[in-house]
Automatic annotation (TrEMBL):
Domain called Isochorismatase-like: residue spans: 13-163
Superkingdom assignment: Bacteria
Protein name per Swiss-Prot or TrEMBL: Cysteine hydrolase family protein
Signal peptide: none
Organism: Mesorhizobium abyssinicae
Keyword Mitochondrion on entry: no
Keyword terms: Hydrolase
Pfam families on file: Isochorismatase
Gene3D superfamilies in UniProt: Isochorismatase-like
Enzyme class, spelled out: hydrolase
Length: 215
């Protein structure tokens, strides 16, 4: 159950997921990493992609007018100004967590010979996670910029988890199988140097944890 091999020279697209105003102090305010920090990294990734000739896809979550979040026609549902004001090569509206479900994203990526997607945006544990797993199942390699994303806390019948816990655990899980997890600055360096980000496996990740616990 090892990670899919990355290509020697990946043909990347940057997929910018749901960077909308409700996450910026609105009805679903991102807590960790803080939105004010992570959105700067989203913008940095978009600028670096444009400079490197990497295509940029912007995704927007859609919801009915009565929804408490991302309501159609609401300020909270609109793209954040940092993203809305930047150039993009493709735009996708979605109604479910994965950016692939019910959209033309897969067809557009394949038409542009993309084999690797770099995911930024919100939320780490919901739409990012869903999009990443979906992409892997379709044969794409994935990169995830952990400081250009974020989470919120949850409490429900299953228990409580802080935003920091959720974000940290999901990034560890992603690195173990589904994506190469790295910081925005590291990703920008990869674009400039051609270096490939580190990938891992379930087995190796587990073995390290067992060795750590035994120490």
């Amino acid at each position: 159950m090892s990670a899919p091999a990355n290509t020697a020279q990946p043909r990347r697209a940057l997929v910018v997921v749901d960077v909308q105003n409700d996450y910026d102090g609105g009805n679903l305010a991102i807590q960790h990493p803080p939105f004010r920090d992570s959105v700067v990294n989203v913008a940095r990734a978009m600028d670096a992609a444009a400079e490197a000739g990497v295509k940029v896809v912007v995704i927007k979550q859609m919801a009915p007018e009565t929804s408490p979040i991302f309501a159609k026609g609401s300020h909270g549902g609109e793209l954040h100004p940092e993203i809305a004001g930047r150039s993009r090569d493709h735009y996708v509206e979605k109604t479910l967590p994965s950016a692939f479900t019910g959209t033309d994203l897969e067809a557009w990526l394949r038409a542009n010979a993309i084999d690797t997607i770099a995911v930024v945006g919100y939320m780490t544990h919901n739409c990012d996670l869903s999009t990443i797993i979906h992409a892997v199942h379709m044969g794409f390699a994935v990169e995830f910029l952990s400081d250009a994303s974020g989470s919120v806390p949850y409490a429900n019948s299953a228990g409580y988890a802080s935003a920091e816990d959720i974000h940290r655990v999901v990034t560890i899980i992603l690195q173990s199988r589904f994506a190469a997890v790295l910081k925005t600055a590291e990703w920008v360096d990869c674009l400039k140097t051609g270096a490939l980000p580190e990938r891992d496996t379930i087995f190796a990740s587990n073995q390290r944890a067992l060795a750590r616990n035994a120490a």
